[in-house]
Amino acid sequence: MFGHVVLGIDPGLTRCGYAVLSMSSSQEISARAIGVLRTSPHHDLAVRLAEIHEEVEGLINEFRPDAVAVEQVFFQNNVRTAMGVGQASGIVLALASRAGCVVAQYTPSQVKNSVAGWGSATKDQVGRMVQQRLGLASIPEPADAADAAAIALCHCSIAPFMASQQQAIVRSQR
């Protein structure tokens, strides 16, 4: 598990947050890249999705992540926003799977609980924990970038437990 690279994605159509983290141990996690992919709301949907596809594919090709962690599409009041998030998420999931990455999805409350210790933590609390855990000079901005880093950190916390659980299941079936 250690020595892995994790790409965290906070999917969105206008702003898609990303963070690439390297994990040397459960306590040694560093940020290699944190940012936001943007598309113009003035462009056609197909063009915007193609841009997200190209950018995420570029991140996967550049950083060669072992795992891609994506925030699970959750209920939103605005149906149009939910559809865009779902479409962007689908592109990321497909690209990650095609690249042979471990693909994981986490709910917002799982991410908050893992990173801040409380499933109802505020964005500011999550951002501050991201800053602290990664030893950053400031909270990543915009919030989509901090959220992507939190998603990747969540995976870094949960994945070792899940791997040991799977190994225990395999051993018990022998």
TrEMBL record:
<dbReference type="GO" id="GO:0008821">
    <property type="term" value="F:crossover junction DNA endonuclease activity"/>
</dbReference>
<keyword id="KW-0234">DNA repair</keyword>
<keyword id="KW-0963">Cytoplasm</keyword>
<keyword id="KW-0227">DNA damage</keyword>
<dbReference type="Pfam" id="PF02075">
    <property type="entry name" value="RuvC"/>
</dbReference>
<dbReference type="GO" id="GO:0006281">
    <property type="term" value="P:DNA repair"/>
</dbReference>
<dbReference type="InterPro" id="IPR036397">
    <property type="entry name" value="RNaseH_sf"/>
</dbReference>
<keyword id="KW-0255">Endonuclease</keyword>
<keyword id="KW-0540">Nuclease</keyword>
<keyword id="KW-0378">Hydrolase</keyword>
<dbReference type="GO" id="GO:0046872">
    <property type="term" value="F:metal ion binding"/>
</dbReference>
<keyword id="KW-0238">DNA-binding</keyword>
<dbReference type="InterPro" id="IPR002176">
    <property type="entry name" value="X-over_junc_endoDNase_RuvC"/>
</dbReference>
<comment type="similarity">
    <text>Belongs to the RuvC family.</text>
</comment>
<dbReference type="InterPro" id="IPR020563">
    <property type="entry name" value="X-over_junc_endoDNase_Mg_BS"/>
</dbReference>
<keyword id="KW-0460">Magnesium</keyword>
<protein>
    <submittedName>
        <fullName>Unannotated protein</fullName>
    </submittedName>
</protein>
<dbReference type="GO" id="GO:0006310">
    <property type="term" value="P:DNA recombination"/>
</dbReference>
<dbReference type="GO" id="GO:0003677">
    <property type="term" value="F:DNA binding"/>
</dbReference>
<keyword id="KW-0233">DNA recombination</keyword>
<dbReference type="InterPro" id="IPR012337">
    <property type="entry name" value="RNaseH-like_sf"/>
</dbReference>
<keyword id="KW-0479">Metal-binding</keyword>
